[in-house]
């Protein structure tokens, strides 16, 4: 008996699921997926098979000939959910589990028509990372247990279903007015990368291997924003090797999507807040694309090693940005990341256990400790190795790392063994032990500088003494530079300073959400009334946690902004994803009476 993942009942001494076949009907009335999952074990098997489930009602478990197979359920555990133990009779190759999901399943968000752009049709999307696949299907829900899958998804005929898989056609569903979409994912992926979205969708081709999906009213804007995707894929291939997933499609989801992006293979999920109109937020796409190598080809064995997945991807993202837009652009990315990192050290405490790269999250809900630390600290650790080995050697190392571990899921120790083998001495030289196993930021953290960044920082540091950028300076700033400047400003500011900023940088009307939300955060913390309406609008529309957390936090500083937050939350929260509600409530619990 060996469980390898603190967040799963997966046991690597038991038979392993090689293939999942899903046949599900999407019920928008009841907010349920209903049907069956067929788990193919690849070979005749026997004995116990432990699966993860959460909020699933299991109707039956059957063998290949339809014969019932005995099973029992464990106790409901708060983080893990409920174990489903199937007692496989000798020679079992396949089991079919008939089940229905719960309307409360955290892996699904059901949207009323009012929450969509078109306002006419409902929408549903999944989000499974890190451990929510089990709320939509019984499975070995640990990244070590990679699977291929096929699916038949039945939806109302006016809607379209898309998945993180190849399309395998469609046909009429069993009941009139329904259509069944077929999918085939022939490459082995962790269950957290299985993904589905259903809604009124349209698409535009961007290149022979890429298209973008969105609601009809958004699809043109999406096609414009992501028109450069083929260049980005080509650059990434030059850096990390050929793109292995056939297509790179994207879908722009409704604004309640709780993340910026999610690297579902063949179909990246994106927030519509990226649609700035000027392509200024495509670094998020660079990040999700980079996961095609660092993540989807090689991922973490469990959430304890999450840094391997996200840290490597931030490193790769900034290399793509550098290749496309130059070193200064990448340096700004590092500066923005540094801000996020510092904020997290402040939130958790500089020597909190969760600030270690290699974590121990047994008994902890991974969503409760999600932060930028594995991203930014992890990426900095890799930069240190890169600077120590030299770029050429390090790039060769990354390519051989991806080659060596492709289609597997590894832990920190496996990664370091490979580092020691390929870059002997480098780990000791950078102090890898401290980086990986100790909290806080090691003193030898890499520094990222550029003359432009320094000038921006100095200018912002003079703000309190009355220094202001000239009109010409403001004109010359890229959106990322404007953001860096704003992030560096002191807060709260007085009314005069707020008015000056808004008038001269034209902030309240911005379509770039990074800039807009940074500004609204400053203004909210400053109790600056002219922005309240815009704050209300943003919080009512957008469910992205990255924006909700700072905005609701900034509203905590004054009685009337607190009142605004409470009023807006009451109206907005029914439209938020369960994860977004949790984050926001945790922030508001900190408000002082
Ligand atoms: N895979 C993550 C999102 C994620 C991680 C969701 C863990 C749930 C659990 C995705 O690649 C990501 O990191 N998205 C970021 C954007 C990125 C540019 C840092 C986001 O959503 O903001
Ligand atoms: Zn990521």
Give a concise summary.
It contains 19 helices and 19 strands.
Q: Give the helix level as a range of percent.
A: 25-40%
Mean pLDDT: 98
What's the total number of strands? 19
* Principal-axes shape call: globular
The helix tally amounts to 19
- Largest sheet, if any? 8 strands, mixed
Uncertain stretches of 5 or more adjacent residues: none
The computed structural class is alpha+beta
Description of the structure:
This protein has 593 residues and is α+β, with helices and mostly antiparallel strands. The protein is 37% helix and 23% strand. Strands 1, 2, 3, 4, 5, 8, 10 and 11 form an eight-stranded mixed beta sheet that branches. It has a five-stranded mixed beta sheet with strand order 13-14-15-17-16, covered by helices on one side. The radius of gyration is 24 Å and the shape is globular. The N and C termini lie far apart (51 Å). The mean pLDDT is 98. Zinc ion binds at residues 287, 291, 310, 313.
């Amino acid at each position: 008996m060996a469980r390898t993942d603190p967040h799963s009942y997966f046991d690597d001494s038991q038979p392993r699921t090689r293939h999942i076949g899903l046949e599900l009907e999407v019920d928008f009335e009841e907010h349920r997926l209903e049907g069956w999952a067929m788990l193919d074990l690849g070979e005749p098997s026997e004995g116990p098979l432990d699966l993860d489930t959460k909020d699933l009602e299991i109707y039956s478990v059957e063998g290949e000939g339809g014969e019932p197979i005995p099973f029992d359920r464990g106790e409901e555990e708060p983080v893990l959910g409920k174990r489903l133990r199937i007692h496989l009779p000798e020679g079992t190759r396949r089991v079919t589990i008939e089940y229905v999901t719960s309307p409360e399943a955290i892996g699904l968000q059901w949207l009323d028509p009012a929450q969509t752009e078109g306002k006419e049709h409902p929408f549903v999307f999944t989000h499974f990372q890190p451990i929510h696949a089990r709320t939509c299907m019984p499975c070995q829900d640990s990244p070590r247990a990679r699977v291929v899958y096929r699916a038949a998804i039945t939806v109302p005929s006016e809607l379209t279903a898309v998945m993180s898989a190849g399309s395998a056609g469609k046909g009429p569903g069993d009941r009139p007015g329904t259509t069944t979409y077929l999918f085939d994912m022939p490459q082995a992926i962790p269950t957290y990368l299985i993904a589905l979205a259903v809604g009124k969708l349209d698409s535009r081709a961007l290149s022979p291997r890429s298209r973008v999906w969105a609601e009809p009213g958004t699809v043109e804007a999406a096609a414009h924003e992501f028109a450069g995707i083929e260049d980005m894929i080509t650059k990434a291939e030059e850096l990390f090797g050929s793109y292995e997933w056939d297509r790179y499609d994207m879908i722009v989801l409704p604004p309640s999507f709780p993340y910026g992006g999610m690297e579902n293979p063949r179909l990246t999920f994106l927030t519509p807040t990226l649609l700035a109109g000027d392509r200024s937020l495509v670094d998020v796409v660079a990040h999700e694309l980079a996961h095609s190598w660092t993540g989807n080809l090689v991922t973490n064995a469990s959430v304890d090693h999450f840094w391997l997945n996200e840290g490597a991807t931030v490193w790769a993202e900034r290399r793509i940005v550098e290749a496309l837009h130059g070193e200064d652009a990448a340096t700004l990315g590092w500066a923005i990341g540094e801000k996020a990192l510092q904020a997290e050290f402040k939130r958790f405490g500089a020597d909190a256990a969760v600030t270690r790269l290699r974590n121990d999250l047994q008994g902890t809900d991974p969503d409760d400790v999600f932060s930028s630390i594995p991203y930014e600290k992890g990426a900095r650790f890799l930069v240190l190795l890169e600077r120590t080995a030299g770029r050429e050697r390090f790039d060769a190392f990354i390519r051989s790392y991806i080659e060596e571990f492709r289609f597997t899921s590894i832990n920190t120790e496996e990664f370091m063994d490979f580092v020691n083998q390929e870059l002997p001495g480098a780990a000791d030289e950078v102090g890898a032990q401290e980086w990986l196993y100790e909290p806080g930021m090691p003193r030898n953290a890499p520094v990222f500088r550029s003359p432009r960044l320094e000038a921006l920082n100095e200018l912002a540091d003079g703000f309190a003494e009355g220094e202001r950028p000239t009109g010409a300076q403001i004109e010359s700033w890229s959106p990322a530079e404007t953001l860096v400047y704003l992030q560096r400003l002191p807060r709260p500011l007085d009314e005069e300073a707020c008015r000056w900023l808004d008038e001269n940088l034209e902030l309240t009307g911005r379509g770039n959400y990074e800039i807009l939300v940074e500004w609204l955060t400053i203004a909210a913390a400053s109790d600056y009334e002219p922005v309240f309406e815009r704050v209300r609008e943003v919080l009512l529309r957008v469910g992205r946690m990255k924006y909700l957390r700072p905005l609701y936090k900034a509203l905590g500083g004054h009685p009337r902004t607190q009142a605004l937050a409470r009023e807006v939350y009451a109206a907005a929260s029914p439209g938020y994803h369960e994860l977004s509600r949790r984050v926001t409530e945790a922030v508001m619990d900190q408000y002082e009476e």
